[in-house]
Amino acid sequence: MNTTDWLVLIAGLSAVVWVNWYFFLAPGTVAKAGTGSGGTQEVTVTVKGGYTPATVQLRRGAPVRMVFDRQETSSCSEEIVLPEFGIKRFLPAFQKTTVEFTPNAAGSFDFMCGMSMLRGKLIVSD
Known about the structure:
By secondary structure, this protein is an alpha/beta fold. The protein has one domain (28-125): Immunoglobulin-like (Sandwich), CATH 2.60.40.420. It is 18% helix and 44% strand. The strands form 2 sheets. Strands 1-5-11-10-7-8 form a 6-stranded mixed β-sheet, with no helix packed on it. Strands 2, 3, 4, 6 and 9 form a 5-stranded mixed β-sheet that branches. The radius of gyration is 18 Å and the shape is elongated. The N and C termini lie far apart (58 Å).
């Protein structure tokens, strides 16, 4: 292998590492859900190339209202899935979609797009 071959190999491996870090390991923003009327926990999540905030802190046993504000047309972000809560919802482009549920167990729960490329996390505590 000559120098050019090695440089191409290193660049390719670097790109693979970066993509995996960006989609699976990059730290995102963390937000604590606010309290709305009737004690409902409320948070708005912007959907644009990812989720902002990417991590949401919630209280166990209190109803949650998450508003997903999709600000793009990427096919990857057109669906939100919260598997532990049995939620799978279509997100129309440039619209807000409300998802309501009650977390009855403490723990860490993932939410993701339909392709599992965009990921977020719910941290539920007592």
